TrEMBL record:
The chain crosses the membrane at residues 6-23, 30-49, 55-75. This is NfeD family protein. Gene3D superfamilies: Nucleic acid-binding proteins (2.40.50.140). It comes from Proteus vulgaris. The keyword Nucleotide-binding does not apply. The keyword Nucleotide-binding does not apply. It is a multi-pass membrane protein. Residues 92-145 form the NfeD-like C-terminal domain. Keywords: Membrane, Transmembrane, Transmembrane helix.
Length: 162
């Protein structure tokens, strides 16, 4: 077996790369991806060029480190989209949403109905039930809103998510 592996280094690296990629698919969160890719590259080089085992091992190590570092730098530079940042934070997705007040403000506080829930809102200016507002910030479970001028023929009494 050892003689066969020594005679066919490209197949050894191909099998190692395949096994590492299969192990990666089992859930190692990216740790084996770059080692598997490096093994496949060494397999290609060993098939094309007559290089000995120690050089193949060094190439495998160098390619693994280089590919992992490049991947890390790419991830670091890549900007997360605003949608991805707020994926599991429903309240942050509400910034910019237009809604209609359910009741008059008392001491700056009132309520709005958004989707299937009712939210507490705060406004610096006194507002009346039926006024259309825009969410500008979130503080815990309180939405900070500003009044909007009526833009529809019914005085702005419509709920618009957007």
């Amino acid at each position: 077996m050892i003689e066969w592996i020594s005679a066919h280094p490209a197949l050894f690296w191909l099998c190692l790369g395949g096994l590492l990629l299969i192990a990666e698919m089992l859930g190692t969160a990216g740790y084996l991806l770059w080692s598997g890719m490096a093994a496949l590259c060494v397999s290609l080089l060993a098939w094309v060029l007559p290089i000995n085992w120690p050089i193949q091992g060094v190439l495998f190590a160098i390619l693994t480190v280089i590919s992992a570092v490049l991947w890390h730098l790419w991830l670091k530079r890549r900007k997360q989209s605003k949608e991805a940042e707020n994926l599991n934070q429903k309240s942050h997705q509400l910034i910019g949403v237009h809604a209609v007040l359910s009741s008059d403000t008392e001491n700056g506080f009132s309520r709005v109905k958004l989707a299937d829930g009712s939210w507490r809102v705060y406004s610096d200016t006194p507002l009346q039930a039926g006024d259309q507002v825009e969410v500008i910030a979130i503080d815990g479970i309180t939405l900070h809103v500003i009044p909007l001028k009526p833009t529809t023929s019914d005085g702005g009494n419509t709920l618009t998510n957007g």
